[in-house]
Amino acid sequence: MAEPRRPIDVCITIDAEYDINDSLEKPETHSPLGFSSMLRSDGERSQGLGFILDTLGGHGLPATFFVEVFCAHFFGTGEVRRMVDAIRAAGPHDLQLHAHPCWRYFRDPEWRRSVKTLIKNDSWAGRGDSALPMLREAIELFAAITGGPPQVFRSGNLQVDTAVHAALAQLGIPASSSVGLGLSMPESPALRRWLQPTRIDGVLEVPVAAYREPGLRGDRVKCLTITGTAWPVTRRLLDWAHRMQRGPLVILTHASEFATPAGACASENGRYRTDPLNQARLRALAAFLARERNRFNTTTFAAGLATWQATPPADAGQADDAVFVAPRLARLTRAVETAWTRLRP
Fold first, then answer.
1. What whole-number distance in Å separates Cα of residue 128 and Cα of residue 135?
2. Residue 308: left (phi > 0), alpha (psi -120 to 50), or beta?
3. Domains in the chain, please, with CATH?
4. Which contacts of 283-292 are long-range, i.e. CB under 8 A and separated by 24 or more positions?
5. Burial, 214: exposed, middle or buried (Cβ in 10 Å; 0-12, 13-18, 19+)?
6. Rounded CA gap, 19 and 271, in Å?
7. pLDDT in 10s for each residue of the chain, 345 residues
8. The pTM is what?
9. Neighbours of 263 (CB within 10 A)
10. Phi, psi torsion values for 144, nearest 5 degrees
């Protein structure tokens, strides 16, 4: 008799970051936006962070929020703490470390002048030895904002290399979720993981789930995100992962995906309008995971990490890192989903 399939871990992860608002490209006219860019209010309700917290809370689901910390160089730690306090007030969610190097340009009080001549670099990949002091700086900011050290790091843009994992190991950070093949293909083959965790320099890398989407010109590699994956495809991927017993399955989203600026730019009037398609997708995901608790254990990195570390991760490149291939009509499904949402009143 076949062994019954166990529930697989699913992690909804939110990159919790403020809006740089094109200020590095247009420094004379633009400035970064703080907590309001996470709230994304339509004048009555928060359609960004508030929508996420309400949707998850309504179904009793926890999530991991990767808090971007280098923005504190512009806003100060207090403004970032407003976001952290809102997340903590909403329930037992998890806070982990996220960092975009581009925010470090704001350390210069004369940034409006200096950024005009800089060759800007927002990638963690290729930093070499400088990754260590940058990570130490990020960890110190995270502790100042949240009151404690992180257990998990996520690189900006999911751009990473093994030098970052070596630095994480040296600084005592046991895990990373910085790989997402649909957004960035790591140079090192050891990091090219679709879904299954692997270990680099003793650091457990738990990638954002990636999959293949067939097309007329060949397959496209995509990350499992709310904004980039139609709900029927997400559901099929979840069913496949349970059938194949693959996990943890990491899903990525951002507050900015659920509401867009109501004006020509985010700073024009501070008002946002809802994105009904992405909101419908998150609602569908939350309802499904709440309904299917016998098959899917919605958890956080903090709650799941000990178990994942105790499970021997596969060696990089092994065939066990199976890949989900979306239905051939996945692109058409997205187009139909978008059109239907726009036509609804």
1. 12
2. alpha
3. 8-343 (3.20.20.370)
4. 283/55, 284/231, 284/235, 285/12, 285/226, 285/231, 285/234, 285/251, 286/55, 286/56, 286/58, 286/59, 286/61, 287/59, 288/235, 288/238, 289/10, 289/59, 289/61, 290/59, 290/60, 290/61
5. middle
6. 14
7. 456 789 999 999 999 999 999 999 999 999 999 999 999 999 999 999 999 999 999 999 999 999 999 999 999 999 999 999 999 999 999 999 999 999 999 999 999 999 999 999 999 999 999 999 999 999 999 999 999 999 999 999 999 999 999 999 999 999 999 999 999 999 999 999 999 999 999 999 999 999 999 987 788 999 999 999 999 999 999 999 999 999 999 999 999 999 998 865 555 557 899 999 999 999 999 999 999 999 999 999 999 999 999 987 655 444 467 899 998 766 666 666 666 555 554
8. 0.93
9. 12
10. -65, -35
Q: Pick from 111, 112, 52: which is nearest to 86 by CA? A: 52
The answer to whether the CB of 110 falls within 8 A of the CB of 90 is no
| Residue linked to tokens 């806070």 | 95
Q: Which helix (H) or strand (E) holds 167?
A: helix 162-170
Residue the block writes with tokens 């609602």: 283
Residues 6+ apart with CB under 8 A from 270: 36, 41
